[in-house]
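Q: Hi! First time asking for a complex rather than a single chain. Here are the components, and I think there are two in total. Is that enough to go on?
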Amino acid sequence: MPELLLDGRPLRVADGTTVAAALARSGDGCSRTSISGQRRAPFCGMGICQECRVSIDGQRRLACQTLCRDGMRVESRP
Amino acid sequence: MKVDILIIGAGPAGMAAALAAAPSGARIALLDDNPLPGGQIWRDGAQARLPALACEHRRRLEAQATIEVLSATRVIAQAGPRALLVEDPQQGRVIHYHKLILCTGARELLLPFPGWTLPGVTGAGGLQALIKGGMPVQGERVLIAGSGPLLLASAATAQANGARVLRIAEQAPWRAVAAFAAQLPRWPSKLLQACTLAHPGYRANSHVLAALGSERLEAVRLRQGGKQLEIPCERLACGFGLIPNSQLGQALGCRIEDNAIAVDAWQASSQADIYAAGECTGFGGSELALVEGAIAGHSAVDAREAAQGLWRKRRRWQAFAYVLQRTFALRPALKHLAAPDTLVCRCEDVPYASLSGHADWSSAKLGQRCGMGACQGRICGAASQVLFGWQPPAPRPPFSPARIDTLLQLDRID
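A: Yes, that's all I need. Here is the structure of the assembled complex.
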């Protein structure tokens, strides 16, 4: 069971959990803030729409195509 | 990296292609942007239950020493003749190939309606994918809307994970759905599947009007037959069918027909040594994808007899695909769901009102930045083809957002 830091808060999830799924278990469930200031959450779920892009250990990644790993630092408000 | 056969997409078509080509001894790379092979339909995850056929395909792939599976890897650009620049979380690199098989699948058609950007609203297949990946829906009220059999599959996954699916709103009329059901005995496995997925909340002739809420989804306004109603819920999953992911094929010069990569009887595209199989050649479900993938794999290693031996099976599933497409044709009312302030381009936050005056995609893009964001028009380009009849944007590299370091690899090619 990996434990990650999501916007600074620790969260333990089941093996095989995507970062997109982890977002729904913590905070406001959102992944990013749009250019007009709306909070957005994972949408297409399959790597197309880019709504779920987050910062993971300083790299921009798609939450829906990334599995949670122990010690990962995920930021939805970089 | 150099391979004999490079396969893009590790869903049923890609897996079948790799397994069909493997006995030739060819060196094969099977690449996919997801963390595990399986594509959308055989997606594995914390809350996924894989069918036996999917497990068997994965086992057989792992047992083949000549097949290298490259997961979490995206195609970024063409890197010269018979070479693609790819990127994974660690590195960018160029893969050289002799033959290329495109199994890039399909994505959902997602059409704008008021409130569709609210957290809590997802695609229909999107909800299913997110749940399989471990998203909790226990005790949540879920509404599923749009068109096609995927709505039922998504509802089944949501319910199996503790959600209450209040309604499945199918836009097609009852007449079409009933005619579809009447044809199903031609494909007994599909009839059985339909029976296990049947849901008391299923309504034909129904579609979403708006997602309501301020910070996140609180309710959905639906048109159901002749009446309007509002249903409070935590989630709305809305998808209007599937569209082929033909961009990479298009960028490589393959002929495109009806938005899909055109192929001949050998699954060969119009470009020499490029084959295509599965949903990127037109959607038809995993059974069709499996047989097309196998034909492409055999063809790529010149096992013509083995390929030809599968043509009859392919015809059978093509007939199913045809019935599917006819049944779930979209009604014109769905073009008019967006309000003037509804965002059409979710990346650049471009509202409907600022697009409706433009003549074509390029004009909208230049004038309003529509399609210039991270998804590169994959969502709003497909939507504006339905809404305004605009030709979708021609793909340009980088095909996906990439790191500078990856792009610099192109400079190292001589």
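A: Residues 1 and 14 of chain A are 5 Å apart (CA to CA). Let me know if you'd like any chain examined more closely.
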